[in-house]
Design a protein that fits this description.
Pfam families: Peptidase_M20. With 412 residues, the protein is an alpha/beta fold. The strands form 3 sheets. Strands 1, 2, 3, 4, 5, 6, 13, 14 and 15 form a 9-stranded mixed sheet that branches. It has a 4-stranded antiparallel sheet with strand order 9-11-7-12. The chain has a two-stranded antiparallel ribbon with strand order 8-10. Helices cover 36% and strands 24% of the residues. It binds (2S)-amino(hydroxy)ethanoic acid and manganese (II) ion (3 copies).
């Protein structure tokens, strides 16, 4: 590890402090949106942002904006990510990007002042509400409301599996605000890659040029409840057996396409009544399907619907399938990519362009303002898992990279 500056040590100390919120015994975090852990993270972020001279605003869907007004009336450079996590997940996904944004924002302002340059824009560091969509679907919720892709009224009424609404959850932790969010001129984000490319090629930073097409299938399988002992096998309408075939179909449909051009999983699965001696009457499950080519997803989706129909006929159950959380391919603007690559060169960092298969708040923001998305290496490419890891050195390099980008965006 090269020589650590005092600012580097401060960053690492703060990241260690952040890690402890919602920490799990196995070294990960469990920080679902709208929970007490989310509330603690927000208090942590607010106190650290205010300590660095930012004024924190909270909008009606719980997005947090730590603002520095530099040029009255000017639009804002937004830089940030998300503090919520998947269940039993990693310490870095989102949280690293929020802390890196706070440090890069302060350092970019210091650099501008040291260079005698005046900023042309204002600056805000953002914690977006519910990027993960784990407790409340869809994902990228707060950033999509900000981008006008979803209505705040609809999102506040979304309910989790226990029937708790977003509104009730935010009110319970006291984080449903009423501040007007700042107007954005542009957005920048740094995020762990959650893949293996940067690590395999020994690179410092990734500059993201496009995101994959992603969508989810909301699948309900309806059979009939009956006694697992007394009911003849020929008389059963077992929703779970049919759902099990459907789960395999979701996985195996990827084999019909060029290797790694399509990825899919069923990650969430609820069985009713979920009793050992009752034939299940209903299974509700969510499939996630992604590809760099939307036509491949559309073809896979058609094949699956056809298979579900055949499974339903054979098993005498009904399938109800709805599309949601659809994200078209997003291409980041060439001007932002070039600006980021220039900043990497100026910092002496090795970077390359790549696509993201994971969704990010930057995808929502890019639908309304020019956006730059940077990646930092992930060890083994593992994420949404407690052993997710990015080295201290790579985290600090990412802060340097983001600082260069924010400084350039402030001057435009
Ligand atoms: O959808 C995603 O890939 C992100 O982790 N929410
Ligand atoms: Mn601190
Ligand atoms: Mn993330
Ligand atoms: Mn994630």
């Amino acid at each position: 590890m090269p020589h650590l500056t005092s600012a580097d040590r401060l960053f690492l100390d703060d990241f260690r402090g952040l890690e402890r919120i919602g920490a799990t015994p196995a070294g990960g975090v469990h920080r679902l949106s709208g929970t007490a852990e989310d509330g603690a993270l927000r208090e942590w972020f607010r106190s650290h942002a205010e300590a660095q001279g930012f004024d924190v605003r909270v909008d009606g869907i719980g997005n947090m904006f730590a603002c520095r007004e530099l040029v009255p009336g000017a639009p804002y450079v937004l830089v940030g990510s998300h503090l919520d996590s998947q269940p039993l997940a990693g310490r870095f996904d989102g949280a690293y990007g929020v802390l890196a944004a706070l440090y890069a924002a302060s350092r970019a302002l210091d650099r501008l002042a040291a260079d005698g340059c005046a900023p042309a824009r204002n600056l805000a560091v953002v914690n977006w509400f519910n990027e993960e969509g784990a407790r409340f679907a869809p994902s990228l919720m707060g950033s999509s409301v900000y981008a006008g892709l979803y209505s705040i009224e609809d999102m506040l009424e979304v309910r989790d599996l226990d029937g708790v609404s977003v509104r009730e959850a935010l009110d319970a932790i006291g984080w449903r605000g009423s501040d007007a969010p700042p107007d954005a001129a542009c957005y920048a984000e740094i995020h762990i890659e959650q893949g293996r490319i940067l690590e395999r090629e020994g690179l410092d930073v990734g500059v993201v040029e496009a995101s994959w097409y992603t969508q989810k299938l909301d699948i309900t399988v309806l059979g009939e409840q009956s006694h697992t002992g007394a009911t003849a096998m020929a008389d059963r309408r077992d929703a779970l057996v049919a759902a099990a075939e459907a789960v395999l179909a979701v996985h195996d449909v990827t084999l019909d396409f060029p290797e790694e051009m399509l990825v899919s999983s069923v990650g969430q699965h609820v069985v009713e009544p979920n009793s050992p001696i009752v034939v299940p009457r209903r299974v509700h499950m969510i499939a996630d399907v992604r590809s760099g080519d939307p036509e491949i997803v559309r073809a896979a989706r058609a094949a699956l619907l056809d298979q579900f129909e055949r499974i339903g006929d054979r098993r005498r159950v009904d399938f109800i399938v709805e599309d949601f959380d659809v994200r078209e391919v997003c291409r980041f603007p060439e001007a932002g990519i070039a600006l980021a690559e220039e900043a990497m060169r100026a910092e002496g960092l090795a970077s390359r362009r790549l696509s993201t298969m994971a969704g990010h708040d930057a995808v929502a923001l890019n639908s309304v303002v020019p956006t730059v998305l940077l990646f930092t290496p992930s060890v083994d490419g593992v994420s949404h898992c407690e052993r997710e890891l990015t080295s201290d050195e790579d985290m600090l390099t990412g802060v340097r990279a983001l600082t260069g980008v924010v400084r350039a965006l402030l001057e435009r």
